[in-house]
Amino acid sequence: MIRKIDKTSVGEALRAAYDHCKTETGGKNADYIPYLKNVAQNLFGIAACLPDGTLLTVGDTEFRFGIESVSKVPTALLAMEQYSDHEVLRKIGADATGLPFNSIMAILLENDHPSTPLVNAGAISACSMIKPVGESAGKWESIVNFLTALAGSPVEVIDELYRSESDTNFNNRSIAWLLKNYGRIYDDPMMALDLYTRQCSLGVTASQLATAAATIANGGVNPTTGKRVFRAELTPRIVSLMATVGFYEHTGDWLFQTGLPAKSGVGGGIMAVVPGVMGLAAFAPPLDAAGNSVKAQKALAFLARQLELNLFGTTRCTVAEPVAAKA
Ligand code: GLN
Question: Which pick of 138, 170, 253, 304 has the fewest CB atoms within 10 Å?
Answer without folding.
Answer: 170
